[in-house]
Amino acid sequence: MEDSIETILQNKTTKFLYSDKPSSWLPCLASGITASIYAFWAVFVFPGIRKVPVSLRVPYLPSCKPQTANILKLLNGREGKFVDLGSGDGRLVDLSQYKNVTVFLAPNAMETLEKKLSAELPDDARVIVCRFPFPHWPHTCTEGASLDQVWAYDVMRLKGSLLHYRKQQPCT
Known about the structure:
Elements: H1 5-17, H2 25-45, H3 65-75, E1 82-85, E2 100-103, H4 107-120, E3 126-130, E4 141-143, E5 150-154, H5 155-158, H6 162-165
Parallel strand pairs: 1-2, 2-3
Antiparallel strand pairs: 3-5, 4-5
């Protein structure tokens, strides 16, 4: 007995659409698309990361609300430009124009940053450091405790200009 053409086509279409074999091309396609999107995104988000030495690369770790409040307490009443180091892709700028600097970096980057900040910051600048203090600088004052602790460093004090230091705003 012969089947009609409609029956033959119906069986072939059904076999194609409802196969019992697991398909391996769909997960591969999804993975490929995801990897392509990430690669395209990373080219624009991390252009400077290739230029940063491995020892200075740090993981993303957001500051908490109490820590941010402590930073604001130590910067209260200060004037001048502000820069936040540790919120970008690792590129450093000329720091001579900033009088207020916050730093939230890992300990492995702090010693290198000490040298750059002392060479470039103006005498009346203040540096606020979160979570990991500078290894060689004496802090002017501190706010908070434990993971919320922040340290203030006044550049005038670091450079030994104590006569001008007395005119600076004290930590409150």
